[in-house]
Amino acid sequence: QVQLVESGGGLVQAGDSLRLSCAASGGTFSALTMGWFRQAPGNEREFVGHITWSGDTRYEDSVKGRFTISRDNAKNTVYLQMNSLKPEDTAVYYCNVRVAVVAEYDVWGQGTQVTVSS
Predict the structure, then answer these.
(1) Closest to 106 in 3D by CA, of 33, 22, 43
(2) For a surface tag, which of 3, 31, 94, 103 has the fewest beta carbons within 10 Å of its beta carbon?
(3) What percent of the chain has pLDDT over 90?
């Protein structure tokens, strides 16, 4: 069964940078689209951005120009580079990967806390 392990969260100040990583493992699979969501207290989980197998990216408007998603297909790992962080970026960040084994399905990471102080 495919599992995701996230790392890189923490407490930073406004304007700082942080990089999250998410590694997929568990058997033979293809990691298709890899992406990130976030959930702030009292809010629904929201899309942050994703990257396709071929490297095409899409971002939520509020993070465009500040966040960058990249991936290492050899390591089945996706990264979220977050620059110019704002207090409103504070949330639990979840990795999401669409995997293909026999069929396609989504796998979620355990979440990592990002806190940005003003």
Answers:
(1) 33
(2) 103
(3) 88
